[in-house]
Specification:
1 helix; globular; about 10% helix; 5-stranded mixed beta barrel; mainly beta; 7 strands; OB fold (Dihydrolipoamide Acetyltransferase, E2P); about 130 residues
C-alpha cells in the first residue's frame, strides 16, 4: 500500500506571488498563504494563523502571478514537498505545498498546475 501525501488549504495571500524561471524553462510562482483558525479555550476566544509556502508550476503559476495579489483568497490542493539545503555548515529544511489545483475563491473555477500533469522535474535551484 502506498503512503498518502495530500494537502488542501485555503487562505489569503500574504504578498503578491513571485514568478521565477527554473533552468529547464519551467515557470514557478512562489507564494505564501495565511490560513486562520478560531477556537475557544477556557471560555476565551482565540485566533491562530498558519503561514504556508506554496509552489504553483507552469501556466497556472503564470496566471496566479498575473491575476492575484496580496490579500486575495485561494484554495490550494496538492502534495507536501520538503526542501533541504546546507548553509554555513547548518542543515536547513522547509515544507511547501506543490499545488496540483488552485481555485481563486468560493464557487470559482481555478487552474491546474503543471505539477498535476507530472511536467515538473526536481531542478529547483536550492
Amino acid at each position: 500500500m502506498s503512503d498518502l501525501n495530500r494537502a488542501t488549504l485555503s487562505g489569503r495571500l500574504t504578498a503578491d506571488p513571485e514568478l521565477k524561471y527554473l533552468p529547464s524553462g519551467t515557470t514557478v510562482a512562489n507564494l505564501r498563504l495565511a490560513s486562520n483558525r478560531s477556537y475557544t479555550t477556557n471560555g476565551e476566544r482565540r485566533e491562530e494563523v498558519l503561514f504556508v509556502d506554496v509552489e504553483v508550476y507552469g501556466k497556472a503559476g503564470e496566471a496566479l502571478a498575473q491575476h492575484k495579489a496580496k490579500g486575495d483568497f485561494l484554495l490550494v490542493d496538492g502534495r507536501l514537498r520538503q526542501h533541504t539545503w546546507e548553509r554555513d555548515g547548518q542543515r536547513h529544511s522547509r515544507l511547501a505545498i506543490v499545488a496540483d489545483q488552485v481555485s481563486f475563491g468560493p464557487n470559482t473555477k481555478g487552474v491546474t498546475s503543471a505539477a498535476a500533469e507530472g511536467e515538473v522535474k526536481d531542478d529547483l535551484p536550492f
